[in-house]
Amino acid sequence: MKKNSSGEWFAFNREYVPLGWNSTRNSESIYQEKPYSEHPIHTKFKGLTDKAILNIITDVDAIKRKEDGEIESIFFYNDRTNPQSHPEFWNEYFEKIKAFSKFEIVG
User: Cα–Cα distance between 74 and 2 in angstroms, integer?
Assistant: First the structure.
């Protein structure tokens, strides 16, 4: 997931494009807001703070921060813990999804 400058989040897939997009053509890195900021794919969540994220995502390598230390993106797994390739990680992956799904959408 990646946070924009308004504190809203979007979920991205393995190609680093928003979930539901079928193509990476004409897309940019998740570390740039455009073209994603131009589409209604961002969601604001009540209580989704850095502290709350750190209670769910415990692998420091799965957390990317801005220069000021604020969390700007998180990853639910990496190549080593990809549940599709390593089925023993499915439960851990689903637990993270369940934890994030408890945050209420604002707006």
Answer: 7
Give the separation between CA 15 and CA 79, rounded to whole angstroms.
13
> Minimal CA–CA distance to 29: which of 19, 38, 14, 16?
16
CB 7 within 8 A of CB 36: no
Contact 65, 71 (CB under 8 A): yes
Instruction: Report pLDDT digits (tens) over 30-65.
Output: 555 555 556 668 899 999 999 999 999 999 999 999
Q: Is the pTM of this model over 0.85?
A: no
Q: Is residue 55 helix, strand or coil?
A: helix
